[in-house]
Design brief:
single chain; mainly beta; 1 helix
Amino acid sequence: MILCNISDANTYRNISPLLNEALEWLLANTSSSLANGSYPVGDNGVVVKAETPALMPRERVRLEAHRRFIDIHVPLKGIETIGWAPVGSLSYLAQPYSDDADVAFYSDSAHSLLHVHPGQIAIFFPEDAHAPNIGIGNHRKLCIKIPCL
């Protein structure tokens, strides 16, 4: 898991070519002008999802984990609190992994809470379970899905 300012994201470009592609797009497109929906970035499977989700109390948000995708969470309006735990430490599988949806859900508690501010990003790899959208009210965000190589 990586938490950093968008302006410092260049540090992580060499992790993977598709992560680099997503970060290049993000650095050039940091406004919140995208309508809600999914937008492909190039032709390698990177997708930007513009969302206005309802925030929920911590106790109602389950940890999720992906196997085929890296997620970048980018709050645009409001602080996004995200729970985090290493997948290898989790014991309580709430919903088994779905290959179609690329997600498994866990009912374990998060080990840490991240408070991601506009101007920052949180990057979650397959070994990172995360519980996004914790809080009260709504917020505006981008979630960038990056295929793992």
